[in-house]
Every structure is written in C-alpha cells, then in structure tokens.
Amino acid sequence: MKKVITFGEILLRLSTERHLRFSQATNFNATYGGGEFNVAVSLANYGFNAEFVTRLPKNDIGECALQEIRKHNVATTNIQFGGDRLGIYFLETGAGTRGSKVVYDRANSAIAEIEPNSIDWKAVFKDADWFHWSGVTPAISAKAAAVCLEAVKAAHKMGITISSDLNYRSKLWKYGKEPKDIMPELLKYSNVILGDLDTAFFMTGQETQDPDYQDMDSLPELYDLLYKGSPDLSYVATTLRYSVNASHQKIGGILYDGKKIHYAKIREVTPVVDRVGSGDAFMGGLIYGLLQDRIDNQQTIDFAAAACCIKHTITGDFNLATLDEIEQLAGGNSSGKVSR
Amino acid sequence: MKKVITFGEILLRLSTERHLRFSQATNFNATYGGGEFNVAVSLANYGFNAEFVTRLPKNDIGECALQEIRKHNVATTNIQFGGDRLGIYFLETGAGTRGSKVVYDRANSAIAEIEPNSIDWKAVFKDADWFHWSGVTPAISAKAAAVCLEAVKAAHKMGITISSDLNYRSKLWKYGKEPKDIMPELLKYSNVILGDLDTAFFMTGQETQDPDYQDMDSLPELYDLLYKGSPDLSYVATTLRYSVNASHQKIGGILYDGKKIHYAKIREVTPVVDRVGSGDAFMGGLIYGLLQDRIDNQQTIDFAAAACCIKHTITGDFNLATLDEIEQLAGGNSSGKVSR
Amino acid sequence: MKKVITFGEILLRLSTERHLRFSQATNFNATYGGGEFNVAVSLANYGFNAEFVTRLPKNDIGECALQEIRKHNVATTNIQFGGDRLGIYFLETGAGTRGSKVVYDRANSAIAEIEPNSIDWKAVFKDADWFHWSGVTPAISAKAAAVCLEAVKAAHKMGITISSDLNYRSKLWKYGKEPKDIMPELLKYSNVILGDLDTAFFMTGQETQDPDYQDMDSLPELYDLLYKGSPDLSYVATTLRYSVNASHQKIGGILYDGKKIHYAKIREVTPVVDRVGSGDAFMGGLIYGLLQDRIDNQQTIDFAAAACCIKHTITGDFNLATLDEIEQLAGGNSSGKVSR
Amino acid sequence: MKKVITFGEILLRLSTERHLRFSQATNFNATYGGGEFNVAVSLANYGFNAEFVTRLPKNDIGECALQEIRKHNVATTNIQFGGDRLGIYFLETGAGTRGSKVVYDRANSAIAEIEPNSIDWKAVFKDADWFHWSGVTPAISAKAAAVCLEAVKAAHKMGITISSDLNYRSKLWKYGKEPKDIMPELLKYSNVILGDLDTAFFMTGQETQDPDYQDMDSLPELYDLLYKGSPDLSYVATTLRYSVNASHQKIGGILYDGKKIHYAKIREVTPVVDRVGSGDAFMGGLIYGLLQDRIDNQQTIDFAAAACCIKHTITGDFNLATLDEIEQLAGGNSSGKVSR
Amino acid sequence: MKKVITFGEILLRLSTERHLRFSQATNFNATYGGGEFNVAVSLANYGFNAEFVTRLPKNDIGECALQEIRKHNVATTNIQFGGDRLGIYFLETGAGTRGSKVVYDRANSAIAEIEPNSIDWKAVFKDADWFHWSGVTPAISAKAAAVCLEAVKAAHKMGITISSDLNYRSKLWKYGKEPKDIMPELLKYSNVILGDLDTAFFMTGQETQDPDYQDMDSLPELYDLLYKGSPDLSYVATTLRYSVNASHQKIGGILYDGKKIHYAKIREVTPVVDRVGSGDAFMGGLIYGLLQDRIDNQQTIDFAAAACCIKHTITGDFNLATLDEIEQLAGGNSSGKVSR
Amino acid sequence: MKKVITFGEILLRLSTERHLRFSQATNFNATYGGGEFNVAVSLANYGFNAEFVTRLPKNDIGECALQEIRKHNVATTNIQFGGDRLGIYFLETGAGTRGSKVVYDRANSAIAEIEPNSIDWKAVFKDADWFHWSGVTPAISAKAAAVCLEAVKAAHKMGITISSDLNYRSKLWKYGKEPKDIMPELLKYSNVILGDLDTAFFMTGQETQDPDYQDMDSLPELYDLLYKGSPDLSYVATTLRYSVNASHQKIGGILYDGKKIHYAKIREVTPVVDRVGSGDAFMGGLIYGLLQDRIDNQQTIDFAAAACCIKHTITGDFNLATLDEIEQLAGGNSSGKVSR
C-alpha cells in the first residue's frame, strides 16, 4: 500500500445551516478541515496509507480535530502538540445569486507558531512514496513557511514524489512576505503542480500571460514556463471552473505531462451542496491517478475532475465519495439513480 | 365510498438529513413506509376507504408503525401481530451527480415470517372494491409469497379488481426462488399491471423485447404479450423516467387499455426532494383514475404522472399531495405559486 | 441620514423546515415579519434611519416581535402597546411543482383593533423624509384603514414623500369594504406607487386594461392612468415575475417616471430558498434608489430588481443582503463565488 | 370494550425547547392537546374505545389536529368541521425556581363559535358508557357552554355515567358569565367530580370552606356539600399537589365515595419533564379505575395518582404511559430501572 | 429613567447541547455574552437606560454581537469598531458530578487591542448615573487595563457612582502584570464592590484573612479593610455559593453598608440549567436595588440573591428573568407554578 | 504502554432525544456501543493501547461503526468483516419514575454468525497484557460462544490476564443453551470477575446464596465460592447500585482480593443523563487500577466506582471522562465546579 504524507493546517469549521446568513444563526455546525488534510482523507478513502502532519493545541478543541483525523483512517503518528488555539473559519453557505462567505479567524493558531526544526522530517518520510503540501501553509506565518521548506527539501532528498497545490489566498500572506518571495524556492522541488497558470505566474514572479484554456495549441507553451523553475516537474494540472451561480457550477480539468494536454470534459454541477474542498478533491483524485499504474493520464484527469464534481454534493471539507462512485461518474454515468 | 385493500410490508425508514452521507450522520430521521402502504396513503388522501393488511411485531417499534398507519386514516382492522422485528431500511439522500443510497436491513421481519392461512382473506375483502399488491412482497420470503397468492386468489374469486405493481428489487429474492417461478401465477389474476415491459417480460419468463417507449405504434404489440398470461387484464401502465441527475428527473407515463396507448407528457422535476415512493404515488394515481367514472383514460394517466411528479417534492415515502394540487398540475399549472 | 417611517403589521411566522408539509411538522421555525416592516429592515440595512410604527400586544409574543425589530436596528419609538394577540401566519415552503402554502391566522390582532386618533402622527413624522405603507394594512380592518388614512394625510401635509405598495391579498378585505371603497382615497397622496397595472386598476375602480409588459411603447399610456387619481405621483414601478416552478423564478422590473419606462433585465432565480418578502425587498430597493442622489432611474430599477432576486436566496421575510452584495448583482456579477 | 366520549377543545401547543425562554426561541415544538382530549388518549391507551367530540377548522392546522387524534386511536366520528382557526397556546417550560409560563391565544377558535343544536348528541352517545367534560369548555364562550349543557343533559337522559373535571382557569370566563352562573346547572348531572374543594365551592357559589386535606375526619363533611347540588353524584376526587419547585412536585390524591376517604400516598416527582396535562392523566386514571370491576376504590385512587406522577416524566399533554407501567408504580415500584 | 454604562468585552459563546462533551458535539449553540454586558442586559430588563461600551471587529461575527446587544435594548452609541476578531469561549455544560468546562479562545480580540485615549469618556458619561466594570477587563491586556482606568477616572470625576466586580480569572492576566499591580488603582474609585473577601485581599495585595461568612460578628472588621483603599466606597457585597454538584447549588449573599451585614438566605438551586453569568445576575440585582429609593438594603440583597438563583434556570449568559419573577422569588415564593 | 484486547459486539444505538417516548420520536440519535467496546474506549482514554476484536458487516452501517472505533483511538487491526447486518438497539431514555426502555433488534448480526476458528487468536494476543470479555457474547449465539471460548483458552495459554464481566441479559440466551451450560467453562480461565454474587451463582450453576453487601464479615465466604471454579482467579468485584428513580442512583462498589473486602463509598448520582454503559465504565476503571502499580486495591475500587458515577452524566455508551476528572471525583471532590 502506497504511503502519502500531507502537511498543513486543520481548522474548526463553523457553518450555518440551511443557507442561513450569519446574523440568523443560533447554532453552527462544527466540522474540521483544511486543504492538505482534505487531500489525505481522499487518499485514505481510496485505500492508500495516508498520514497528516500538523500541530494541534493541547486542549479539547485540538482533541476533537485529532479524533476527526483518526476517524478517517489518516495516521496521526507525527502530529506535534502545542500552541494556544486551533484556527477557525466561519462559513455561510450561499445559494443562487448569493455566494458563500468565509470569515477567517485563524491567526495565532498552533501551526502558525510551529518552531523550525521541531519536526524530524527524515522520520516522517521513512517508507513514504509521496508528499503533498499547498500554498496555504507558507502563507500563514514565516515559521510555517520555514517548516514547509524543511519538508520539501527533506522529501526531495529522500526521492519522494512531491505535489504542490498553489492555493493562493489573498487574505493570508500577512506576515511581510509576498508569494514571489517564498513560493519559487518551495516549488523548485515539485514533481506535480496544481494551479491556474495566472496564479502560477504570479506566485513565481513571472510576467502574467493570458491563458485561453480552450485553446489546446497555445497551452503547452505556457505550461512549459513552469518547468523552468522546477527541474523535476513532471505534471501540471489545472481545475477548470465556470460559475453560473453559487448553486450551479461547470467543472472540468486539464493535465499536462510536458508533452500533451489532456482535458476532462466540462460537467454541469447543480445543485451545489458544498463547494469548499472541491479543489482538494481534485488534487486527491490527481494523486490517486498518478500513483496508480493501471490508469493513464486521460483517465487520471477524468478521475480528478469527477472527484471534484462529486465533492460539490457532499457537506463538509472532505470528499467522502468512494472509488466506485467516482469511477462511475468519470466513466460517464451521472444519472444519480437510487442504489438499492 | 370505494374500499381499497393493500397488502405488504411497512418498514422503519432511517434517513440522513441535509444530504449527509451515512458516515456523517449523528441522527436519523425516522419515518415509516413501504410500497403497498404508500399506495394506501395516497388513496386515503383521495377520499377512499383504504385499508392496509400486514404483520407487525408486538414491540414499541411495531406500535409506532401502527400509529403512523392510523394517522393517515388507513384502516388497521386486519393487521396481524407477531414476529420479532420491523424491517428497516437506511436511506442516504443524494444530490446532483451523487445518487441516493439504500441499505436494507429487512431480513427476518414480522411479515417475512407470516404463516400461510393465518389471514382470513374472505373477511378482509368483504365490501372491498379493489386489491393492490406488488412484487416486493413475494420477493421477501416463501411464506410471504404464499400468503400473497392466497390474497390474489381470494380477491379474484370474490370479483374484486386486482392491481399488481411489478416492483422488481434484485437485492431481494434471496430465498431460492426467482421471479419467474413465482410471479406468473400471482400475476395471472391481475386486472391492472404497472411496470416496465422489460421487467414484465423478465418476471413472466418471456424473452425480452426491446421496447421504444417513444414509438407509439410498436408498443401495443409488446403490451399485448402481457395479456396472455393474465386473462382478466384490462390495463397495463408504465412510468417513464429519465434521470438527468439525482436532483433532476423527467417523468411521464403510459396507460394502455388493450387498444390504445395514452401518454402523459414528460415533465421536468427539479429539484428532487425525495424520490422514494414516487412509483407508489404513480400507482395510487392510477387506481384513483380507474376507480372514478368521471375521469377518462387520458385524464387517468395524466393524474398518475402528475402525482408521481409532485411526490418528488415531498419528504418521506408517501405522496401527501391533495387531489386539488395534483389536478392542478395534471391540468398544466406547474408554476408553484404561493397559495395565500 | 435620511429617515424613513413605515406603518403596518408584524406577524409571527411559523414555517416548516426542509420543505416538510404541515402534517409532517413536529416543530415550526419562528420568525417575525410583515410587508412594511420588511421594507424598514431593508432600509436600515442600507444605512437609513428606519422606524416602524405598529401596535403590539403586551405579552411575551409581542415582546419577541419587539426584540426582532430592535435587533435589525429599526426604531421602535412610536410603537403602541395593547390588544390581545400578535397575528400569525403558517408557512409551508414548497419545492419544484409544489407551491408554498400560507395559512393565515391574523384576525383580531393588536393592530386590527387599533383605535383611530391613538397615534400622534405629527410627532411620528417629525424629521422624517419618507413614509411607506401598503395595501395590506387597510385590508385588515376598518380601524386599521382609518389609521392608515390618518397617516398618509399627516405625511402629505408635512411634505413627506409617500410610497404605496398596492399589495393586494384577496383573503383579507373581510370587513365589508372592497379595495375600491378605500384605496383611492389612500393612494391619492402617493408620490410613488408599486404594483401591477391590473391590480392598480382594480383597486382604484378603473376599467381593467390588459398590459403587455414587454411592449415598451404601450405602457406609458397605461401607467399614466394612475397619475390622474394621485396628483403628486412621480413614479410607478412594477415587479415582473415569471414562475417556472416554486424553485425557479424569473425576475425583472419596471420603473416609470411619468416620461420613460426603465426596465431591469429578467434574471434567472434558482433555487428559490424563500420567496416571501421578495416584493418588499423590491420596494426597499426602490426607496433606496429614489432617496439617493447618486443613482439614476435605471440604476434604481436595477438595484430594486437585484434586491428582489437576492432576497429569494434568504430564509425569512427580510432581505438581509448588504448594499455591496446587491450592487454587485445589479452590476451584472451573478456568479455567486465564495468570498474568502 | 367500554366506550367513553369526551367533549372539548384541542389546541395547537407551541413550546420552547430545552427550558428556553420565549425570547430565546427560534423554533417551537408543535404538538396538540387539550384537557378532555388528553383524557381520551389515556383511555385509548388503557384499551377503551375512546372518542373525542370537538369542532375543527377546515384548514391544514385543523387537519394536523385530526391526524393526531387518529394516531392515538381515538375515534373522530362525530367531529364537526367549521370555523376559522384552531386555538393555540404557547408554553415556556420552566425549571427549578422559574415556573412554566403559558400564553393563551385561543379566542375565536372553531369550538368557541360552535352553534347550539349542531351536534346530534343522541347519535354520539349511542352505545357509550361514559361521558367526560371539564370546566374549561363552558369557560370558552356562551355557545360552547350551551353545547356542553346539551351534552350533559343528553348523556344523563341516556343513563350514561358523567364525569366532570372542574378545571378552573381564571384567564378564561371572559364572555360575561361567571362560573357560578353556569357551572351548577352543568354539574347537576355529574356522577363523578374531580376538583379541589375550594374550586368546587367557588364554582357552585357556595361559601368557601377551608379544607385541610391531611385531616381525614373533617373531609367527608366538606365533600358531602357537593352531593347536594348533584343528586346522582357517586364520587368526588381531588389531586393533591405540593410544589417544591418547577422541577420537583409532590403528588397524591383523594377519592371519596360518599362514605369513606381513600388516600393515595404522596410521591416525590423529580425531575418534572412536563407537568401540563398531569391533572388530565389523573382524571384518565380515575375513569379507568371506576370503569373496571376488578379494582377497588383504594386501587383506583392509587392508579390515578400514579398515572398523574408518571405523566410528569412525559413531554406533551398526553399521558403516554402504559397500563403496566402505571400499575407497577401504583404497586410501589418507583425505581425506574432500565427495561432490557 | 436612570442611565447605567457598562464597559467590557462581549464574546461569542459556543456551547454543546444536551450535556454533550466537546468530543461528541457536531454543532455548537451560538450565543453572545460577557460579564459587563450581562449586567447591562439585566438592567435594561429592569427598565433602566442601559448602555454597553466595547470594541467590536468589523466583520460578520462582530455584527452578530452588535445585533444581540440591540435586541436586548442596550444602547450601542459609543461602541468602537476595529480589530481582527471577536473573542470566543467554548462551553461544555456539565451535570451532576461532572462540572462544566470552559475553553477560552479570546486572545487578540478587538477589545484586547483597544488604543488608549480612543474613547471619549466624557461624552459617554454625559447624563449617566452609574458606571459598572469588572476585573475581567484589566486582565485581558495592558491596553484594556489602561482604557479601564481612563473610564473609572472619568466617571469618578463626573460624580457617577462606580461599581466594581472583582471577577478574578486566573487563566487571564497573561500580559506580565498581576492583579495587585493594577487593581488597587482601579478599585480606588469604587462606590460599590462585589467580590469574595479572599479575592479582594489578593487583588489589593493585602494579607489574606480567612473569612467565615456565617459569623456575622467577625465580618464587618474584614470588610472594613476594603474601605481603606477605596475612600468613596459605600457598599461591599459577596455572593455566597456552595456547590453540591454541577446540577445543585446553594446560593445566598451578603451586603455590607459599612455598618451592618445584611444576609440573603441560602436557597437550593436545582437543577442548574446554566450557571454561567449568575454572578453578573447578582451584580445586576445589586445595582437595581441600590439605584431604587423604594428598596432598603435587606430587600436589595434579597433581590440580588434571587436574581442570581433564577439565572441558574436560564440558558445563556444573561438573566432574562423579569422584575416580577425575581421579586416573587425574593419574596419567598419558589414554588415554580405554571403561570396560566 | 500496556496493551488490552477486548472481544464482543458493537451495536448501532438509536435513542430518542429529550426523554421522548418511542411513539413521539421523529428522529433517533445514532451512536455506537457495546459492553466490551465500551471498556476498550475507557482504557484508550486512560492511555492504554486498546484493541477491539469483533465482526462487522461490509456495508455503510458497519463502516460507521468502524469509524467510531478508530475515532476513539481503539485499534481495529483484527476486526473481521462479513455477515449481513450490524445489531441494533433502540433506547428510550426515562426520567424520574419512568425507567429507560431498550428494544433489542440484534438477532442475526455479523458477530452472531462468526465462524469458529476464523480468528487467529495467537496473532491477536501477541504482545497483549490483558484480555477482557463479557457474558453478553456467549449469550448471542452458539458460534459466538465457541469463538469466545477459543479466545479465553488462547489468552490463558499465552499467560495473559483475563477479566470476565458476567453481564447477564435474560432477553438473550435464546439459542438453546443456558448460562450454566456455557459460562463455567468460560469463567474457568478468569483472573478477574466482575458481577453480582447472585448472578455468579446462577451462571455457574451453584445454589443461590443471599448476599448482604453491607455485611463485611459474611462476604468473603460467599466470594470464595467463585474461586473454586476459577483456579487462577485473583479478584472479584461487584458494582453496588441502588435506584431511587431513573434520574437518581446511588453507586458504590466492592473489590475482593481473596483476602479482604474493599468498599467504595456510596455516592449520590443525580441527575442521571445516561446510565447505559455505566457497568462497563466500572469495569474499565477496575482494569485501569489493576494494571497500574501505583494504585492499591482501595484506590482501584474507588477509581472504578468514581468512573461508574461520572459515566451517568455522559450521553452514549462510553465513559468519555478523563483520568483527571475521575481521580478528582475518586479523591472526594464532587462539587462539579466550572473549570475555567
């Protein structure tokens, strides 16, 4: 069984029910999630040996997060305990013409205050096949960025495949650094990158190009620009999203292997139950495909896009769909019949 | 007031809320339902004297089912008490590209262990005008099949109109018999059959034909095949369903009277609140139309299809729509305006 | 800060959850609302000094309504206390082909029994810029109609702009008078009228014309008919609604300034979370635009229609959308992206 | 099977959850109840043929009440339909030193406007053994009082046993009559009266005596005073209640048969889950005992008091305890062990 | 109407339902509260003109807090907006032998980062009669302590009565100062102090004495020690609490006026619905009594203790009891009868 | 870290909320539990390496149980998958004089149909220090009894300490064997037995003695009788329970070490939130004490009894109390103060 490590933050998510606005809520649904952990859950569901590395406060809320990690069969072996609080985000789920709304309350979280050199990455990566991180972690604090760099360097040195999700969030990056100061060094070791071309150019400090994702011929040239900064890069992937309204999305994807563009066809996604974590579902599907010998690149991008679609029907940050459900959708069956 | 008897199983339905997956649920909504009982509820709502015959365990859960039957104004006069448990089914309600999921836990239920000759069908059918059963009941156990046969024979002997819903469920039929061993004898007494042509051919052991429901000319020939095994058959009806996704169905219907095909036009059904029991809603509408003198065959199939459509907007197994609501929809008003 | 007074009834609204029918409900969500109060909430949200005048019973339920008014930053200075009960309405929220259903239980409410001359309108309107009322209030009782007339006369005398929402409800008007007996005198003082042309002609006792809202050339002539009875009338507006089904509406609007027809383009509104109060949201948007110098008539009708659309995504009677959200939608961005 | 008729009002009860105050509630639990109906439910649970006569409005809320009556196996044969609304009461459930609070909103209910001579009491009482009414009904309106008098006269004429629960509510009796104007004539036909001596003297216009319920010797003399106005009176019973706080009651009872005082011993009742309807539970227990040959007077009062106690542990107006549970408690087993 | 100002923090409270432990919770009830705001709510309920001064973040969660303040009729005129987050506390409600548990997550809240001299206290205290603060605010941060000192100085200078609740929380005071460094200067201006003698000695840096609250003769000497540091001190009060278990408290109180000890008798409080904020309820009762001419010192302490008791029956931080309810309990009626 | 293995059944528990009776429930809270698993959760909470061996069906409900096991940090390494269903029990939580009620629906569960020799007990017990089982497992079916015997024999052979909880349930033992046919052989290998003396004599087929648990002198002689059948027995323990009512228990315990009786003092437990699993909490505390060197026998029984008490305050089958909370209670602090 292949072993995948992900590193990042897990937050308490407090969301309103039934599309209520924050000011109408007298209670919040409490779940736990975060980009890199969401990917780990997907991979554990697909049968991999998944492990999540993070830092959790030693209080009851941190303990709840720990139980959630265990529940999803994600290993907790190398989690560090310390710090004052678990980061929180508040979520108001929109509908139709009203978009969802996130209020972050994640400053000063346990992982934001992680000490460099406090994790023994050599031990963490023992027997591991894959390491995944995203651009959210270096955006949290200088310390988190430093530990993230330790991780990618150690993984690279040990010959572990590294996937990087650009995941740009403008509301983070508040500690005095810009993405272009930090990300190029981190992305240098990537074997797989997930992200928009625009974001990639912005984060790597390159001049922005204007990609037309429908123009198959022009894309390789643009994607090739990313290979310069990441010498070991094998794949670049992009999630294609077109938002009709908050309840209706169109979702597809692109996988580029340095030679060829593979498209996953655009699917209608309506109604949207919860779109948070759908990018992580895409990422989880991508890693699944790339870690499997039996699946080719076209099947990989089809699987990733189908995973992303089906995530929109599931409440919470995780993609709780089964391999079988995703494969059926990837294979073209979107009828949603009752299974009985 | 016309009197209709239905016979079958009522189950405890445990469903997740808000499209949650089973693994996310910390509580289940508890309702009660089952194909033949659902039909009885429809008919009671339409003003008929409806009675449901079943077997219930003498425990608190059986008592809850009994109260639900009473609440809906369905007579309980001939219910038998005994056995160990009420059958259960778990329901996870899907959305969009993710279909709903049913986990059956109905083995060894009270009615599966009903003793042949334990119900006085002659007394049950006294003053009755109509008897309805479905293919789910003989699929449960040899005993249930035997009692079902007693019922149709008694009803037939007493000159009561008999409607049969084929209702094939591949997960049942576990007791060593196949539908073709059991169903032909049961269907022999039918005056009305509801089902797909494919299912009908399969259950009656005929070679499968490939029906094209849009081809009005070819259909009578195929439907006529069913009249051979059921000499008293007057009507065959089929629900037409096209599934765009779990939240979006297209619903129509066909009624064949041995001479002419009557179509109910296809309607868009979106969003789907709950599609379980929509076939029973169709059946209930069909019986309503056929029991009314004032309604012709076209109006009957329009009513049945409208009942099926509106059921998709109602949570639970029953079609709690009123006559007036269904007639408005059948008459072409689908605007769903606020009634105030 | 401009000051707006509205006068009318606030009711306890008891609604079923999750599209349940009344007979399935074991609890009701309890909120508070009413046409004129809903308008006041919109205006308070937009930053105006809004005040609601009504009559509330001196019991716990009246106190709950009072707290709701305060919570939304609407002034309660001139609320009168007395009477026996707060009016109630029960709401069953439909879906798809099944419309929502309202059961009124509002007879004998505190405001229905308000005594003429019991409110010092001169004090109420001190420093006020705008007065809004609707046709629901004179429909409740002769006393409510009398007090409404006192209000419009006082407002007119004090030079305050008066907006009138026709708001015809056939289930009201039970006290022996018809709209045409009461409304012309009330509408006489209007500066702004919101309503369908049909309703306007019916309420003012004019012969009904058959308006074609798509025919820009024919409309001015029809709208001009309303100016005869209301010599100070500046604007007439109409909400355009086309109902695909209970979950899918198409919404636009018209603003006529005595010279020119301004259209707000028709928008798809799906899914509909709650359409109650969407007309009041339109009205609130209209007043907002007309009270602002920086917004022209086209922008005003665009804002009003966008406010109406976004209200459909919000549970409860009020439009809890922010200025910014409505302006974005009015400006053409309906993608409903996650704000994070 | 003995047949018992009760006549009165059934109301929609809207109660706050988890001891919330009204101003904290964002939803209300919706149940249905009313003194005389509550007694009917008790008797149906004990195996009697119970029927409830009332008047219900022809709207969805009235239909909900009707379904609740059916669910509890109480016959609805003679219910009259008409009127505008179902009466409502709001309930805030207290705890400890804070008492529960009721807000009535029951004026102008369907039964308050029942027409005299509109019920065929002779048909109602055919085959009946017992008729029960309470002092709440004549307190509602002159019409309700008139119909109540019709009922007791008819029952008396047909030789049916009549039980009367005094049930004084000072907030009712608003239509210009006092209890002493109405109750003596109604009580004249009683065979069984339940009530405090104080209330009985007040309602029958006698000079108030000061009863000491612990003084067994002085009581017969006082109870005997009631026999003067009710020549057919056989039994008088009183519920003894001592309130430590809202969560802790002490409950006993007295049954006087014209000769002897029978006491049910005082039991500690803590915690109190819901005390509404506990008097009706007592009444139901009393009728049960008096209708049974196998139970003597001491056993009857023990059963009635035990029924009253156990009701305090059950949410809602009805005593949903089984015969077996009450008999166990009446027999002295109050350990509340898990039954498994 | 007397005007009372309170100054402090309002937090989002996230509590588990039904005595669930944190690890069992899938949702949290969301309410808002904080010591000084809780006092303001009590005083608004008693009919005073109450105003709360605080600092709120300009985000949706801050807006929710603002609406809660308004809902309770507490003025918001001088609230300052800014900062990053609203403080949070998580509450697990215990039962019996298991105590409730609080997890604080309030560091870096808006008020912790308030700038000195940013509030115009002279304007705030215009027309005010009373100012209340507590020891929680100077415990938050040096900045909050500084602003608190500005407030008491300004209030003292303007001749406003000042009440101080010692409110010691060992988990706060993390910014490098101890209570004895800060509190004496703040308490110097007090006219009324609420607190334990132990806490008072500790906070004012005096040698701890060992008070025996049952020994009426020894107490004045100890209380008198507090008058030395607070020359304008008129009253010292102490809440007496004895905890049988988490669901059962005994509550009394002491009021010392510099001459005489007034005791409120100890009351049994069981069950405890929610004890958070019961000290603030006591404080609110104390201020009520001292601001009323018609109430003497004994009545004041009786009222304060009764307010504290009844708060234990109410969910949330606020004492939502009415004047009438508290006076009844203070007057000796603790029977908790249903009010109907 | 000591390793403890437990073997038995885990069930889906469906319980009504808020003390509702089954017939009032429209939803059930869904949790998972079972005697031996509950013990494993206690031990995992106390920091041991706990593992649960069972058989789970390969369906969604079995998967939910698996996730619950993982969440609580109990190892799932040797769980067998197969069979048709997870056993279910329905729970109605009583209050006061009304006891809780359990309806079992656990026949034909996955573990009831476990095949003998299908578990490699030698592998299971590798590195284990303790094995725990209870009398519920052999009561389920002959197969479960046979596998249980395999387990105790293997454990005994490998020198692992064995604890046996008698756990007699009269509603089980339906497969044709009585306890005395099966239990003596199973108990033979015990090192620790938990149970009543009565139950022990009944299960081992000895003549019943009448123990007086308050008579310290007579008890050793009775307990010694158990040592005859179990040659390796070191300890016998008994939970002492006295039920005042369903909401009020008195709990103590006895530990006999073959020489001396150690009593845990009787504690008042009120209110009872949930008493299911309190015996398992006792057992977990006992194993904790016996596995610790630092704790003597008196401290062990005090800890076990305190664990049992505190479990009564926690919803669900598990004792989610921490070591620290139990030790505080065992040490005499039952005040239940707020921890903040």
TrEMBL record, chains A, B, C, D, E, F:
SUPFAM superfamilies named among the record's database cross-references: Ribokinase-like
Family assignment from sequence similarity: Belongs to the carbohydrate kinase PfkB family.
Protein's name in the database: 2-dehydro-3-deoxygluconokinase
TM ranges: none
Organism: Arenibacter troitsensis
Keywords carried by this UniProt record: Kinase, Transferase
InterPro entries: Carb_kinase_PfkB-like, PfkB_dom, Ribokinase-like
Keyword Transferase: yes
GO molecular function: kinase activity
Organism lineage string: Bacteria, Pseudomonadati, Bacteroidota, Flavobacteriia, Flavobacteriales
Chain ranges of the Carbohydrate kinase PfkB domain: 1-210, 254-311
Domain of life of the organism encoding this protein: Bacteria
